[in-house]
Amino acid sequence: MTATGATPSAHPEHPGRTDGVSNEFTVFTKIKPGEADALRADLTWLGDAANDENVHAALRQIGTLHDARHVIFDNDTRFMFASVFDGSWDTYIDDFAKTVVGERFDKVFAHSEGFPGIKDPGVKDWFLAHQEPAGVFVSAYPDLTVQQIYKDHRVDDAFQEVLDTPQFRAALDNPANAELLATPAFQKLLEEASA
Question: Closest by alpha carbon to 64, among 14, 99, 37, 109?
């Protein structure tokens, strides 16, 4: 973990902190009077819909979102959306508007005062007016993009499958491979695979 703390954004035209390739995005809004229960119901729906394959496909298509949180607070008067993403803030907002995730944003943020809609040309100005940078932002993996994490996961799955085959066991027992097996790099690979 890198303890870089509150590093100014690599995109100074927008508030937010960075740690390596990760950026934080936190928005605070006022909930329209009388709409907290409707927002809560929509957040419940959103949580249930998060298991929808279309949402996961959209998030893979966007390919920059690490995580996101939605919170109602201050006695049901305020709402917070916070996320961590890779790359440009502008691209991040644009990408959401192009997928089913944007429709879900519209449904949830419609309960916030003044929200123009995710496809509205003024939505970025609205987000900027409601965004607050974190005082400290630290990532456990500051040098890994979402795409790199996806790839690492795929490679790990494939490698674990190889480790479980009888052919791999036979290769480990083959004296012809003794020199390769004795290298520090191969030993480290086996150690990491068994951790």
Answer: 99
**CATH number of 7-130: 1.10.260.40, 3.40.1280.10, 3.30.70.100, 3.20.20.10?**
3.30.70.100
Q: Mind listing the pLDDT tens digit for each residue in 147-168?
A: 999 998 998 888 888 888 888 8
**Closest residue by Cα to residue 18 from 69, 63, 85:** 85
Helical pair 100-109 and 36-49, crossing angle rounded to 10 deg? 160
pLDDT band at residue 2, thresholds of 50, 70 and 90?
Answer: very low
Give the containing element (helix H, strand E) for 63. Answer: none
Nearest-angstrom CA–CA distance, 153 and 141: 14
Residue 82 region, left (φ>0) first, then alpha (ψ -120 to 50), else beta? beta
